[in-house]
């Protein structure tokens, strides 16, 4: 089998696969032209592998025809709107307006959650097979594992994770960065601590907690949206301090 | 004659009651009951019984809704009870749903519909991240896939999920989004 002919087949398969795995227009594939290619090469195939490749290419083309059918149906409904127009509208609308539009077209499902014999059995099996908490982490930590507790700054220094100088300089770096980002405005807390590495993210959140406790930054939470904002202060704040618990985990 | 009528009425009432209980109690992972199941429980005329039930629950602000299956057949359709009228914004907020979460879902549905019903997950994420914080986008998309509002295939392509088809009047949503074009974001 000539390399050129084989390449033609592989190209058809690859093109179809790329269209299927993206939201590209399926009409970008010229089905007639590709079928002509397959038809032209068909008499030359001798081996089973070649014929299998040919049938795979045909199958992929059939999938594209199916996508074209769905594309047309979707476009024929009034749900079709120019993607750029939709993107522009969504960007321009406030979150409140987007949520209101959603609620006005929303008909929540009414249903009752209940315990079924099957669910009860599942729960029983889970409970029966669950190892006691004291034994669950024995393999990893033995019998001497400490209970979860609070690690304060002194503990970290004692453990050698920080030195006093390192910690002070890190606080200064984070404060300067916050001041630069903020320029006198509130900054989104989550965005500020965000980092590609979880360790860095936790460290930033930890240092930020010290800056806030130290009165070098303010924190506020919006009870409606749950948004947490921070702002650096030019000089240490005085007055009554309040505790705010913020959970920081991987991905949030 | 009167006895026959009474018997027929009692029979219908019994069937309607059974239909109500069948629709209300969740049996599988997802709410609603398939057409073939209703046919087995209520008989061939199950659509007529559902019509009567839909009229009966109207006073409670509910309706029987049909979500067409993949092949469009009666057997594959899913029937469920849902609110006849949308809740108010205050009611939605009282149920513990955040405005930002609703806004992310509305934007996702609009985006996917505008892309002929399918969009790459990355494309959607990039689009949403221009407006919402990254952590909220990742978290929300995952949650909406689990709840059935969005559907993700093995190639990470997102489509409109069965729950959106069941709960959202997509045409109204798109119209409302477009008609609100003059309001500029202040959030």
Q: Any overview of this molecule?
A:
The complex is a heterodimer of chains A (252) and B (187). Chain A is mainly alpha-helical and 252 residues long. Helix content of chain A is 58%, strand content 5%. Chain A has a 3-stranded antiparallel beta sheet. In chain A, a hairpin with a 6-residue loop joins strand 2 and strand 3. Chain B is α+β, with helices and mostly antiparallel strands and 187 residues long. Chain B has 2 domains: 2-85, Aspartate Aminotransferase, domain 1 (Alpha-Beta Complex); 90-186, Winged helix-like DNA-binding domain superfamily/Winged helix DNA-binding domain (Arc Repressor Mutant, subunit A). Helices cover 55% and strands 13% of the residues of chain B. Chain B has helices at 2-24, 35-42, 46-56, 89-94, 99-114, 121-129, 134-147, 162-167, 170-179, and strands at residues 33-34, 62-67, 78-83, 118-120, 150-152, 157-160. In chain B, the strands form 2 sheets. In chain B, strands 1-3-2 form a 3-stranded antiparallel beta sheet. In chain B, strands 4-6-5 form a 3-stranded antiparallel beta sheet. The termini of chain B are far apart. At the A-B interface, helix 3, helix 4 and helix 5 of A face strand 2, strand 3, helix 4, helix 5 and strand 4 of B.
């Amino acid at each position: 089998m000539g390399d050129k002919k084989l390449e033609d087949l592989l190209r058809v398969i690859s093109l179809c696969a790329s269209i299927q795995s993206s939201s590209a227009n399926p009409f970008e594939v010229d089905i007639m032209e590709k079928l002509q290619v397959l038809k032209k090469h068909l008499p030359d195939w001798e081996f089973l592998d070649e014929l299998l490749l040919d049938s795979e290419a045909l199958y992929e083309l059939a999938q594209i025809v199916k996508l074209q059918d769905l594309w047309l149906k979707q476009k024929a409904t009034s749900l079709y709107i120019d993607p750029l127009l939709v993107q522009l509208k969504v960007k321009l609308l406030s979150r409140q307006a987007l949520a209101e539009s959603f609620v006005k077209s929303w008909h929540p499902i009414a249903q009752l959650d209940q315990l079924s014999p099957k669910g009860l059995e599942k729960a029983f099996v889970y409970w029966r097979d669950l190892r006691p908490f004291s034994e669950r982490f024995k393999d990893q930590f033995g019998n001497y594992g400490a209970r979860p507790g609070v690690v304060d700054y002194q503990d970290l220094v004692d453990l050698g994770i920080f030195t006093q100088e390192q910690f002070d300089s890190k606080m200064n770096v984070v404060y300067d960065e916050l001041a630069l980002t903020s320029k006198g405005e509130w900054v989104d807390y989550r965005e500020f601590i965000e980092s590609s590495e979880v360790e860095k993210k936790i460290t930033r959140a930890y240092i930020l907690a010290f800056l806030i406790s130290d009165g070098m930054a303010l924190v506020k939470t919006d009870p409606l949206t749950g948004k947490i904002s921070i702002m650096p202060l030019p000089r240490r704040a005085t007055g009554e301090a309040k505790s705010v618990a913020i959970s920081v985990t991987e991905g949030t | 004659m009167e006895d026959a009528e009474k018997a027929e009425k009692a029979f219908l009432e019994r069937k309607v009651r059974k239909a109500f209980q069948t629709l209300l109690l969740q049996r599988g992972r997802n709410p609603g009951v398939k057409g073939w199941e209703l046919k087995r429980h209520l008989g061939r005329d199950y659509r007529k019984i559902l019509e009567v039930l839909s009229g009966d629950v109207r006073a409670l602000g509910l309706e029987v809704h049909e979500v067409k299956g993949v092949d469009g057949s009666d057997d594959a359709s899913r029937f469920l009870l849902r609110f006849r009228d949308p809740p108010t914004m205050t009611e939605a907020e009282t149920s513990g749903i955040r405005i930002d979460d609703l806004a992310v879902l509305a934007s996702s549905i609009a985006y996917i519909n505008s892309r002929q019903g399918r969009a790459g997950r990355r494309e959607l994420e990039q689009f949403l991240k221009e407006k919402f914080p990254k952590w909220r986008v990742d978290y929300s998309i995952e949650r909406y896939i689990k709840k059935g509002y969005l559907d993700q295939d093995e190639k990470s392509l997102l489509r409109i999920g069965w729950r959106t088809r069941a709960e959202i009047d997509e045409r109204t949503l798109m119209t409302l989004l477009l008609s609100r074009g003059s309001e500029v974001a202040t959030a």
